[in-house]
Amino acid sequence: MPQKTKHTPMMEQYFNIKADYEDAFLFYRLGDFYEMFYDDAIKASQILELTLTSRNKNADDPIPMCGIPHHAAAGYIDTLIDKGYKVALCEQVEDPRETKGMVKREVVQLITPGTVMASKGLSAKENNYLSAIVWDAQTNHFGFSYADLSTGELKAAVLATPDSVVNEASAIQTKEIILGSEIPDSLKEILAQRLNVVFSTQENELVSSELSYLVANIDSDLTKAASIKLLTYLSETQKRSLGHLQQVQEYQPADYLKMDHYSKFNLELAQSIRTGKKQGTLLWLLDETKTAMGGRLLKQWLDRPLIDEKAIVKRQNMVQSLLDSFFERADIQENLTKVYDLERLAGRIAFGSVNGRDLIQLKTSLNQVPVVEQLVRGIDQGQWTGLLEDLDPVADVADLIERAINEEAPLTITEGSVIKNGYNEQLDVYREAMTNGKQWLAELEAKEREATGIKTLKIGFNRVFGYFIEVSKGQINNVPEGRYERKQTLSNAERFITPELKETERLILEAEEKSKGLEYQLFIQVRDQIKSAISRIQVLAHGIATVDVLQSFATVSEKYGYVRPTLTSQSRDLELIEGRHPVVEKVMGHQEYVPNSVELPKGTDIMLITGPNMSGKSTYMRQLALTVIMAQMGCFVPAEKANMPIFDQIFTRIGASDDLISGQSTFMVEMMEANEALRHATPQSLILFDEIGRGTATYDGMALAEAIIHYIHRHVHAKTLFSTHYHELTMLENSLDNLINCHVGAVEKDGEVVFLHKMLAGPADKSYGIHVAKLAGLPTELLTQASQILNALENGTHLSEEDLSVEVSQLDLFAGQDQTNNDVICDLNALDLTTMTPLEALNALNDLQKKMTK
Ligand code: ADP
Ligand code: MG
């Protein structure tokens, strides 16, 4: 940036302010525009497609500049925030008309991805989180705190490892992280690599008394420090009331079913791997919520399934009672659709950014509550205790809005028409004056027509001249001398004013102005009065959200025929009869889906699954994981019958999806995921290893896979589903007591292999590779030879070059063909089928075939 010295006072001011907001776009208010200068201007003009101009065009060093009309700023700000930038709004904080010299300017708000409040920048069913992390070098622990400024939610936890910091931050999809300077660079790097976030810093920590009570209830110094950092940042960037922030709730990740971010990603809980969207995920399946708050709470429950048996059963009981009462449930749903986003409305009330229409929405929402409460009470047989108390309709607020706010209030709060007649006497007086004045004008018009005999005489109004009497040019001679004072001449008419008209004009305009001012004041009073009820509105919002999620569970469970699972933390018996993968079933239809049981009684820890490609191994494993998650959220599950232990953690290594975000190799990710599981799983955990070892050379892959199974069997004892293409591993059943084999069935029909997608006991048949090759349409001769080679291998003999050429000549396959074909035979002979996956075999055959047709 150029030297400050030789600039105008205005640019001096600009530099001084900009110095404090280096990492933000500074929107510098100049009249009706926000201007940006220098690099800000150059960058913003590209991102926002604005025209880049310059200040001091003719000077030696013109200043790059671009501007936005202030009334259109919101859209531009949204765009910048959406792309991960920050915007500092710098306003004139003095009235320019009353100031000599430079108008004082200040940044009144720093808008960042983690602090957006405007409803346009937020998606209704998603939270928008800002987090803060602090580190204690002595204990090597982290304090993690996060808030949704739009809803007022504030939570914090102590985390023991960088991994768990990454897990928590990614689970809540935080948009922005505030880091203290003590945070090790290594953690910062991991966070930057794994998460798509903006970083911010906050050093001095002075929580205002308004905010200090929010952290008053915290026990741990670390969570307190993180929360204070977060609150300080919020108050310093937002510079206004944050009265809707709720007291910090401390939580322990260990109180919930633990899943690392790999698993959540792999299982497609809330985000499709392919598209990154909600469509096709478990969240998409479960979401029949009717309110924005319910949608957000559902996602929170999905991120943190329960492990406490009592708490799960409580949710199940409520779902059951909703399932048992079809009509009440339909009515509850119906009423919920009329409930607006109470949490965010409460936030905007505290923030001071609500208008009359918002308050009408608040009233409409509150008015639904008594009905919902009655309906819930009607089906309650003790299951809803605790929740019913939260459904207080905050009637005083609804009543206040009903009395004060116009049903058709406009979007602005300064232009009048917000407050109802009859709410305030003085306002009624002004309004009467306005109405009377207008009435009086009509009478005056009639009177003047009569007096002058000018039938076309009329009374009008414009902003510049106020009220006037207009007479057309042709009638001008009839205008009475003296009483009419000329005000304006138009091409075909003259406009006059009379002393009487002037006086009435004064009364009307004064009344109008005063009433607008008074309306504004009254509105602020109403808003402040509601402010004092914010915490009650928030309790209600949470109650409504809970009812909404539970009705969503009931609706989904009924729609897809789910059963109530029996869960217990006492037992380790897993019995899932005729289970289905809920999302695949929804997509392909119930009729098409082949149900499968998972039975792992006590004493059986590991299920080794073999079967050809595309037979349904991965689907089977995911099915179990999703069922466990649904069950521990309190929802019913896709099965005929389900008896399940309560799992403490789920570990997965599923699918061949590269970790696209971090760009790490598949095999490295595979091993990292395996490591997580082997080190942290307990006998109460669930491990899903899908074709582990596949990402490396055959022998060391198989060796690792076998060693991993031994290790789990010996040390971990977690319930484990292990799918593999290493057929050799099925032999482990003979030596490992707690391992069973199963495979996906296939039948031959008219010489073709048909996968049944059905799990059967015992190991799979090995010759699927050739069947698959046959399905792919490879030449019969080639397949025959492959079968012969396989037979020989199975008998422990290797076909020699000679044997093979005999076989080949018998087949008369390549008679009379050239060298290429001989090469192909040699290649074919060299294939080691015992160590190939069906897919590798298929690829090899495909290569050979290509070689021949060349
Ligand atoms: P694998 O992991 O054995 O290669 P997948 O689990 O990926 O197989 O399944 C392959 C395809 O088979 C899936 O995309 C799905 O369409 C279908 N499929 C899997 N399981 C079932 C089932 N139980 N019923 C019906 N179709 C299934
Ligand atoms: Mg698979």
UniProtKB/TrEMBL annotation:
GO-annotated biological processes: mismatch repair
Entry's transmembrane regions: none
An example molecular function term from Gene Ontology annotations: damaged DNA binding
Pfam families, per the entry: MutS_I (PF01624), MutS_II (PF05188), MutS_III (PF05192), MutS_IV (PF05190), MutS_V (PF00488)
GO cellular component assignments: cytosol
Positions bound to ATP: 611-618
Residue ranges of every copy of the DNA mismatch repair proteins mutS family domain listed in the record: 685-701
Task performed by this protein: This protein is involved in the repair of mismatches in DNA. It is possible that it carries out the mismatch recognition step. This protein has a weak ATPase activity.
HAMAP family found in the cross-reference section: MutS (MF_00096)
Name assigned to this protein: DNA mismatch repair protein MutS
Annotated organism of origin: Vagococcus coleopterorum
Lineage summary: Bacteria, Bacillati, Bacillota, Bacilli, Lactobacillales
